[in-house]
Amino acid sequence: MINWRLAIVIIVWLVAGRAAAHPASQSRLYLSVDQQQVGVTLHLPADQLEKALPDVKTWQTLKHFEREKFELYLADHLQLFSAGRALKLTLGDTHFRTLDDETFVAAQLALAMPPGETVSSLTLYNDIIQHYVINHRTLVFLQNDMALGHIDAEPVLIDILRYGHNQIDIPRANHGPWHGFVRIIYHGIHHILEGSDHLAFLLSLLMVTGLRARRRTWQSHPATIGDAFRLVTSFAIGHSVTLAINALLPMPDYLMWVEAAVAGSVLLGGVNVLFPLFAGRDNLLAMLFGLIHGMAFASALSVDGLQMSSQLIVLFGFNLGIEIIQVLLVLMLLPCINLWRKSRAFTALRWVTGLIVAAFGALWLTQRIAPQWITGEHTFTLNAGHTLAVIAAVIALSTVKYWRKKQRCEKANERSLSLTRMPLQ
Questions:
Q1: pTM for this structure?
Q2: 36, 88, 209 from 206: Cα distances, Å
């Protein structure tokens, strides 16, 4: 006969092992700190929330009267204080979403300061589920903070709340009024400098701007400031439109296809440097492909939970950072490219640049559509350094060429002057 004590131990061990194999889902709480309010995005596991709401039998239908009960429940179990003042909670959009094959209740909250007061250091209290499900955990993230200029799409983990640890303090430094805006501009600068594909596409546009096509080939022709201004403005209009649409409106997750389209634009840009595919339509090309690049820019930006005025400030500052780098690159590269266009070596430079850009675009396109084709020792990750190295090489070669040409001209002038000053025999 099996000892009954041994049987109990085996049963407990099996149950505990099964429980350990299926850990409880965790809630996620995202904070977006604005000047006068804090936006909160909640992702609550539906099955555990249902246990914590025993008095609402059919809460999953999200009817109006149940929504009011849900808002009251949240106000009791989620509280936010700034300098000792309680923020007023208002429930916004609520819907179901699936994350990692599990159903979550996604809720948008706005917690507002009293009129005329601004948000300072925060104290968060939350026990929405863990007051009833004691092994539940809530991950608290900082999504956005206007004062700090934190608008990155990757949230920062602040703390993990659990039963017995339901309250955390979130200190906030007292920076000047322009600190956040300057950080947002820097975020745009940093993003474009890290974007090798965006820089490569811009380089391909500059190589052919102002050129004339004849008999299916490019004819050397200097580019004017007006040509560069129209080019950069067209690209800026394109990416600004889609950046604003994707940042302000809920859009589906199609980042993989957007990145593939960006790589395709680089490939076409490189081929266009070799052969005039879009002769006379470079501004239209910049605007159309700018629409695609704007969708990629939006992936690095987050304005969720911020007020509309703050969202517009974020978009303006982020775009300003991008435009600063683009204008600087144009000012550095266009004189160099024009200098080369006066030389017979420009055709060779154009072909080398076009082949490099097209090769980069083809590699990126393959990596983003069929990454399994490039694996193991054949994997090649291109970072901004490669593109910037090409740009720096163009600038360096152009500078050397300019000084040599200048020296030859000075020597020729000296010889001509010396001949004119020689006495007649």
A1: 0.71
A2: 44, 53, 5
